[in-house]
Specification:
The complex is a heterodimer of chains A (about 425) and B (about 290).
Chain A: H1 2-28, E1 31-37, H2 44-63, E2 72-78, H3 86-95, E3 101-106, H4 108-111, H5 115-120, E4 125-128, E5 142-144, H6 153-164, E6 169-175, H7 178-193, E7 197-204, H8 212-221, E8 225-230, H9 232-245, E9 253-258, H10 264-270, E10 278-281, H11 294-308, H12 318-335, H13 340-349, E11 352-354, E12 357-359, E13 373-377, E14 394-398, H14 411-414
Parallel strand pairs in A: 1-2, 1-3, 3-4, 4-5, 6-7, 6-8, 8-9, 9-10
Antiparallel strand pairs in A: 10-13, 11-12, 13-14
Helix pairs in contact in A: 2-11, 2-12, 6-7, 12-13
Chain B: H1 4-34, H2 42-57, H3 63-88, H4 96-119, E1 134-137, E2 140-143, H5 144-166, H6 168-178, H7 180-185, H8 190-215, H9 223-237, H10 242-262, H11 268-282
Antiparallel strand pairs in B: 1-2
Helix pairs in contact in B: 1-5, 1-8, 1-9, 1-10, 2-3, 2-4, 2-8, 2-9, 3-8, 5-6, 5-8, 5-10, 6-8, 9-10, 9-11, 10-11
Classes of the chains: A alpha/beta (about 425), B mainly alpha (about 290).
Chain lengths: ~425, ~290
């Protein structure tokens, strides 16, 4: 009995000792960066591509010796593209995995539910291509890697291009989902502010199969420009219907916020149907967008993407995943710390050089100046993914600093 | 602003869309409507068939031909599915329906995840000479892919109506739907007949899946968008009626397209399901049910 008690005491003492020693050991371990990522479900194509970008950065930084002399380890869980999964995943990352830093999942829907928790715990969160998730939360340690900038810059870039081309009326069409509706409302506000007459406004449910009827109605409205806020299946359906039905000679500018036209599989399958569309983008292989490390990154990305059956081009998301890592790297190296407040202060007050160009944040954690591209598809041929690796297939019209050509209009002429 | 021209356009296009809805629902009309099998995996099988057509497209096989080539494969798959369902659920008793539902949900998830693992999550489309072109009839431009879907739906409905009413096996299938016990007393094996019928229902899905990828791009989770729509068509038609399925599809398609064009796209799904409720309120057995 006595010896049993001694054993228990020894065990308790040992456990205490181990517990005291553990934090010391943990500090010498790798720096853990935790995130969820949509690896299945509707957002998975983007999520997988973004993750490869982050993984390339991890391997690059570890090859250079890591951060603060410690290796970088990524802890990633699949959030299934679902908003309901992410709060539990991020709680686990913080409370069980004890991660040092947090990256947000790709896209708005999975990110929005974790914002209150991150603010409550006062943690740094590097955003990953979400749209205006910090607008109401107003967290001061949120930094979005996306090029969007101020909320209205996206629609403003498109409408300004249309006005320069002489457009006086606009048709607005968008999916009945949060992101598309936000964007459509902003476009409506900008159009109203600029005195552009809204001649057609339509939201459609995500389950819409056939878009011919909507295209007919747009044609009947004789709009000068058509601002579209669509998701990938709808983008394809709309472009097909336009090709079949025709949108009319009045339209000078068509596109704006069509999600999907940035992804390789959609670009390849749509081919020449893309010609003439002026749409948002984040990064394009045009000469004006070659920055330090860009070529090297895409060589590494495209090799891995081929093996993983993920977006073979990867221009839209992957370099921004890498840039997210680069920003953290610069902040940690400058502050010599993993303290979230110090890192946030650095990120808020410095210009950071990345493979997608210099990044400066505004007070809301979004880009101070929009770097969202408006580009026009030109000379695209069918069934040829390789053509998109070369400059000249998507001419940058906006912003001015990266502009590589002029708008061809009207839309029906640009399509040919 | 009201326009007669837009309304006429909407009715014509709605008819085409409706026939497409009928084509993707007609397999379910057999499996659920006639055989009483809660086949919620029907839309997942539809997407699987679309992927089959997409794969065969790499060999320059036309999607419709691909659908026809896939029919025997899907027939065998249907037989295997029914046999598993029968052995594990149906023959064990009265709660087979509920447990069968779980079985077919499981099948749907396996198909969905299987497609993701094999082909990734990207959208897939096919090429054919009738995709991306339109024909003009009385100043109305109609996408040719919708005309193809319309024609195939008509052919499918006619072929199945003929098969179920004029052939020995077809009449046996109708008989098993009406009184399984009586059929057994006549010396026929209802399980074998149901198995055959489920095979036919699944084979029809192969062709419908080819139509699906002709009409719109497909991705692994697209089946979820079609669960409500296909069951709505089948229930509105009256369980087991082939011509009713075609008519219900057209009613749904025209209602959706007219509402979308004239009143606003957001109302379209609500109007469709309101129509279903009205039909069930007036005729609980459906438009063509007995």
């Amino acid at each position: 009995m006595k010896s049993g008690r001694i054993h228990r005491r020894t065990a308790v003492a040992g456990a205490l000792a181990a517990g005291l020693a553990f934090p010391v050991l943990a500090q010498q371990g790798p720096i853990k960066i935790g995130m969820s990522m949509p690896l299945t479900g509707g957002l998975a194509a983007g999520g997988k591509s973004a993750l490869i970008g982050i993984e390339v950065w991890r391997d690059d930084i570890n090859a250079k010796g890591g951060l603060l002399g410690r290796k970088v380890e990524l802890i990633v869980y699949d959030d299934k593209s679902s908003a309901s999964e992410t709060p539990a995943i991020y709680s686990k990352l913080l409370d069980v995995d004890k991660v040092d830093l947090l990256f947000a999942p790709y896209a708005t829907v999975p990110t929005a539910p974790i914002m209150p928790m991150v603010k409550q715990r006062d943690l740094l969160l590097m955003g990953n291509f979400s749209f205006q998730v910090n607008r109401t939360v107003k967290h001061d340690k949120w930094f979005n890697n996306a090029p969007w900038g101020p909320a209205d810059s996206w629609a403003r870039g498109f409408i300004d291009l249309g006005m320069k081309a002489g457009a006086k009326t606009i048709a607005l069409i968008g999916a009945d989902q949060e992101f598309a509706q936000n964007l459509m409302k902003i476009a409506k506000d900008v159009a109203t502010e600029k005195g552009i007459k809204i001649v057609y406004e339509q939201s459609y449910p995500p389950s819409t199969v056939e878009f011919s009827a909507m295209v007919r109605a747009i044609r009947a409205a004789r709009a000068d420009m058509v601002f579209v806020c669509s998701y990938p299946p709808d983008s394809v359906g709309l472009l097909r219907a336009i090709n079949e039905i025709g949108i009319g000679d009045s339209v000078k500018l068509f596109g704006g916020g069509m999600v999907g036209l940035q992804f390789s599989s959609v670009m390849e399958s749509m081919g020449s149907l893309l010609n003439g569309v002026v749409n948002y983008n984040s990064y394009l292989p045009e000469k004006s967008m070659q920055f330090s490390g860009t070529t090297d990154f895409f060589a590494k990305y495209q090799k891995r993407a081929g093996e993983a059956k993920v977006d073979p081009l990867g221009y839209y998301l992957a370099p921004f995943g890498y840039a997210m890592g680069q920003m953290v790297e610069q902040a940690v190296n400058a502050t010599k710390s993993l303290d979230h407040k110090k890192l946030a202060d650095f990120l808020r007050s410095n210009e950071m050089m990345t493979i997608v160009g210099p990044i400066v944040f505004g007070p809301d954690g979004e880009r101070k100046e929009s770097a969202t591209l408006m580009a026009q598809f030109r000379g695209v041929t069918d069934k040829n993914i390789e053509q998109f690796r070369n400059p000249g297939k998507q001419i940058i019209l906006f912003p001015e600093k990266w502009k590589t050509g002029e708008l061809v209009q009207p839309f029906e002429k640009a399509r040919k | 602003m009201f326009s007669w021209e837009l309304l006429l356009d909407a009715i014509v296009l709605g008819t085409m869309v409706g026939c497409f809805y009928a084509a993707v629902s007609i397999g379910l009309s057999i499996s659920f409507g006639l055989l009483d099998v809660p086949n919620v995996a029907h839309p997942a099988l539809l997407v699987l068939a679309s992927y089959g057509a997409w794969l065969l497209g790499d060999f320059d096989i036309d999607p419709i031909l691909a659908g026809l080539l896939l029919m025997p494969v899907f027939f065998v798959l249907g037989i295997a599915l029914y046999r598993t369902y029968h052995e594990t659920f149906e023959k064990r008793g009265s709660d087979a329906g509920v447990r069968g539902l779980a079985f077919f949900f499981g099948i749907a998830f396996i198909i969905e995840v299987g497609i993701i693992m094999a082909f990734g999550v990207d959208q897939r489309t096919v090429q054919a000479f009738y995709i991306g072109k339109s024909i003009e009839i009385f100043d109305i431009r109609i996408p040719m892919r919708m005309v193809v879907a319309f024609a195939m739906a008509l052919l499918l409905s006619l072929a199945l109506t003929f098969y179920l009413s004029k052939t020995f096996l077809g009449r046996a299938i109708r008989a098993v739907a009406q009184d399984e016990g009586a059929l057994r007393l006549m010396g026929a094996d209802p399980v074998a007949i149901k198995q055959w019928a489920f095979g036919i229902a699944t084979a029809v899905v192969a062709l419908a899946g080819a139509l699906l990828i002709i009409v719109q791009p497909v991705e692994p989770t697209l089946d979820r968008a079609y669960i409500g729509r296909t069951f709505c068509v089948v229930v509105m038609a009256g369980l087991g009626s082939m011509s009713g399925t075609l008519l219900a599809g057209v009613i749904l398609g025209v209602a959706e397209t007219v509402v979308l064009t004239m009143f606003g796209a957001s109302w379209a799904p609500a109007i469709s399901f309101t129509l279903l409720l009205i039909v069930l309120g007036v005729r609980p057995q459906g438009l063509f049910g007995r």
